[in-house]
Amino acid sequence: MIDEERKKLLKADIPEDFEEEDELTDEKQLVIFKLGNEEYGVDIMQVKEIIKMTNITKIPQVPSFVEGIISLRGEILPIIDMRKKFGLPAGEKTRQTRILVINLDNVTIGGIVDEVTEVLRLPNDAITPPPPVIRGINTEYLQGVGQINGRIIILLDMSKILTSNEVIQIEELKEELLNSDLQ
After folding, report:
1. Going by CATH, does the domain composed of 25-182 fall within 3.40.50.300?
2. Helix, strand, coil percentages, rounded to 5, for the chain
3. What is the spatial distance between Cα 35 and Cα 7, in angstroms, rounded to a whole number?
4. Is 72 exposed, middle or buried (0-12, 13-18, 19+ CB in 10 A)?
5. Which of 77, 80, 81, 90 has the fewest C-beta atoms lying within 10 Å of its C-beta?
6. Could you tell me the residue ranges of all domains in the chain?
């Protein structure tokens, strides 16, 4: 732990006119993925890694959008189907299907997407608020809509993709699985 005196010394080294990185940049760096024909963008800082689709262990009594769990380097990782979460029709798993490993506030999850296409820098002035039609359909996690080179990219705030109750359910599930492995 850093004591209060050390914090003051560290803050003293920061110039008064210093601005946070987000304020200095006039663009967002996004991981772009597809679900069907639609493109979605997620802030690259919310993505821990991208892995190939793997076998998922099904588990009972979970929300319908939770596909199951995987073990990623010894860590139990709940996997959600992004198509189901967004109310989209089921899609086929292909060689391009990927799992985005996402850091939420206090939990790490994997999200199945059809394909990860690129990392893209999107200028802030190319981003508009979500239109009212999109806003009304369970879209707390929409940040806006980006337009670049004739493409429309739906921007997501992954920290809001799960409700607090869903996060609690997933945490309890992980805890149960860990406890059952220890016995």
Report:
1. no
2. 25, 40, 35
3. 45
4. middle
5. 90
6. 25-182
